[in-house]
Design goal:
- By secondary structure, the protein is of the alpha/beta class.
- It folds into 3 domains: about 5-240, P-loop containing nucleotide triphosphate hydrolases (Rossmann fold, 3-Layer(aba) Sandwich), CATH 3.40.50; about 245-275 and about 525-550, no CATH class; about 285-520, P-loop containing nucleotide triphosphate hydrolases (Rossmann fold, 3-Layer(aba) Sandwich), CATH 3.40.50.300.
- It has helices at about 45-50, 105-115, 120-130, 145-160, 175-190, 225-230, 235-240, 270-275, 325-335, 355-360, 380-390, 395-405, 425-435, 455-470, 480-485, 505-515, 525-530, 540-545, and strands at about 5-15, 20-30, 35-40, 60-70, 75, 85-90, 165-170, 195-200, 210-215, 220-225, 250-255, 255-260, 285-295, 300-310, 315-320, 340-345, 350, 365, 440-445, 470-475, 490-495, 495-505.
- Strands 6-7-8-3-9-10 form a 6-stranded mixed β-sheet, with helices on both faces. The protein has a 6-stranded mixed β-sheet with strand order 18-19-20-15-21-22, sandwiched between helices. The protein has a 4-stranded antiparallel β-sheet with strand order 2-1-4-5, covered by helices on one side.
- Helix 3 (about 120-130) packs across helix 4 (about 145-160), helix 11 crosses helix 12 and helix 16 (about 505-515) crosses helix 17 (about 525-530).
- The radius of gyration is 24 Å and the shape is globular.
């Protein structure tokens, strides 16, 4: 029986590039298998998916070497349209792949192209939307969906063609924790029904339901094997720039649930010493909302009476399921949209009385997709735009721009075209453009989407340093490991309202025992919460339980 695909000696150099994206990749996967792929940004993960879906070399031009077989047949000379019924790809930039105005029409595109009858197409559309948690969204306008809802729609469109091979390029990056879990379960179910799945991931925990994990480095295969075995090998993980999961080595797995072995005991004194957080009490509110509401034109209410106070110098995470109102709240605070009703004060002043240019000095906003705010021809000009727009000129403008670029490590790329940068460097450029205005509050909407483990840590360490200098940080995110390690306070939203507000440890410990709000804490917290020592990080686990680890 032929494999689902086979790649031998694959090498590809994109047109205009000086170095190959992949170098001599050899890879084979049997039918009905689930493969996760990880590695640093730029190591060739997406290129491998492009090779399997015939995107290269016909759609993305370049020089291709090696052999590719799809279900035993050569791929050379074929276009993506030639294999549309066999392979479905969910792109990393999923928004760019959405064409239609309504969700129903978007999901119907594939089945209609493949010639399915109207009745069969309607059935496929309905089933795919339901499977992806979008039941009832068929007539919703695509441009009114949240980022996570758009990503679910992209996955639904891929499912509708009933392809034998499904390729997910970070297909859960914008999904809430429940959505990530749902897609992982969906992949397992697809494999059980004979489909083959390849999924590029950025978070190590997301790979644990896969049959195999592939690590790439430098455009080559580093290793391939069982996820739990690879992720407990710190040396291998370090080579690939992947977060290790050392606690797995002292766990038992039962039906997909990881639990500590009964003989593993925690040290209460060590845990209490580690988790006695020093309180940073501030009595200087910088953000105050009361009864805040917002309704999109022709749409449902996005905010329903939000009451929130954020004090100077805090780092606060805003969590919640897709469509819960997180981004809408953030945009209201930043002055990008105007609340329908309610009170919103910044530094004690009603925002309706603050001129827009003055508001920009108070609050900097980093969009979920950096490409939504980047438009200049050079990195320097992009970063200089903000301060120039508020009247900064001459030497001060140059000094601010240079300082912001140095802060994010982009000073040497100042003459580059922003759109030629990697996703991580575009994110840094967008952040530098916010920093150059020198705001007192920075709001970041999913600042680490699409970044690898090392890039995430770099961005978060940068934000931590900025916070130590007195800048208040608000982070809208679905990344629970990020929140657990770096954010002291977490707010959970549901249906446009705040339903939980407290220390991140309390929020995560509660969420480990209740999935009512759809927040899934890091695996290390889930497996330690039952012991009474809810650890948030690998370090806390190793210190608390290290004495009983063999």
């Amino acid at each position: 029986m032929p494999a689902a695909f086979s790649i031998s000696n694959l090498a590809f150099t994109y047109k205009g590039a000086t170095e190959p994206a992949v170098k001599s990749v050899n890879l084979e996967l049997g039918k009905g298998r689930y493969l996760s792929v990880m590695g640093r940004s730029g190591v060739g993960k997406t290129t491998v998916l492009y090779a399997l879906s015939a995107v290269i070399p016909e759609r993305k031009k370049g020089s291709l070497e090696g052999n590719r077989l799809l279900f035993g047949e050569p791929l050379d000379g074929l276009l993506p349209s030639d294999i549309a019924g066999k392979v479905a790809l969910v792109f990393q930039d999923f928004e760019a792949s959405l064409f239609s105005t309504e969700a129903n029409d978007e999901v119907a595109l594939g089945p209609e192209y493949l010639g399915f009858s109207p009745a069969e197409t309607r059935a496929r559309v309905s089933e795919s939307l339901r499977t992806c948690g979008l039941d009832g969204f068929g007539e919703r306008k695509v441009n009114q969906l949240s980022g996570g809802e758009k990503q679910r729609l992209a996955v639904a469109a891929a499912l509708a063609v009933d392809a034998k091979l499904l390729l997910f390029d970070e297909a859960t990056s914008d999904l809430d924790p429940k959505g990530k879990s749902d897609v992982a379960s969906l992949a397992v179910d697809l494999v059980k029904n004979g489909r083959t799945v390849v999924s590029v991931e950025t978070e190590a925990e997301a790979t644990l339901t896969a049959d195999e994990l592939l690590l790439l480095t430098g455009g080559r295969v580093l290793t391939k094997g069982k996820p739990a075995e690879i992720l407990t090998d710190a040396r291998i993980c370090s080579k690939a720039g992947v977060q290790p999961l050392p606690f797995l080595r002292v766990c038992d797995e039962h039906a997909g649930d990881w639990r500590l072995r009964r003989d593993i005991k925690g040290d209460k004194n060590v845990f209490e010493a580690l988790t006695t957080e020093a309180c940073r009490v501030s009595h200087s509110p910088v953000i105050q909302t009361d009864g805040l509401t917002y309704s999109y034109p022709g749409g449902a209410d996005a905010l329903a009476g939000v009451r929130l106070t954020v004090n100077a110098g805090e780092i606060v995470a805003v969590l919640g399921q897709n469509g819960s109102g997180k981004t809408t709240l953030a945009k209201c605070v930043a002055g990008i949209i105007t609340p329908t009703s309610g009170d919103l004060r910044l530094f004690g002043r009603d925002t309706t009385e603050i001129p827009q240019l003055e508001l920009a000095r108070y609050v900097g906003y980093l969009f979920q997709n950096p490409d939504h705010q980047i438009f200049s021809e050079s990195v320097f000009d992009e970063v200089a735009f903000g301060p120039r727009n508020i009247g900064i000129k001459g030497d001060e403008l140059k000094a601010r721009t240079r300082a912001a670029l140095e802060t994010v490590g982009m000073a040497e790329r100042r003459t580059d075209d922003p759109f030629a940068l990697t996703k991580g460097d575009r994110q840094r450029t967008a952040l530098a453009s916010v920093l150059a205005v020198e705001p007192k509050i920075i709001i970041l909407d999913e600042p680490t989407t699409g970044l690898d483990f090392e890039e995430v840590r770099s961005v978060m360490e940068l934000l931590r340093d900025l916070n130590r200098k007195g800048i208040t940080i608000i982070i809208v995110t679905h990344s629970m490991p990020l929140v657990a390690e770096y954010v002291p306070r977490s707010v959970i939203m549901r249906d446009g309202a705040i339903v939980m507000d407290g220390s991140t440890r309390d929020v995560m410990a509660w969420s480990a025992k209740s999935y009512e709000l759809g927040i899934e804490p890091p695996l290390v917290t889930k497996i330690t919460a039952e012991t009474g020592y809810p650890c948030l990080t690998n370090y806390e686990f190793e210190e608390t339980f290290g004495g009983s680890i063999e």
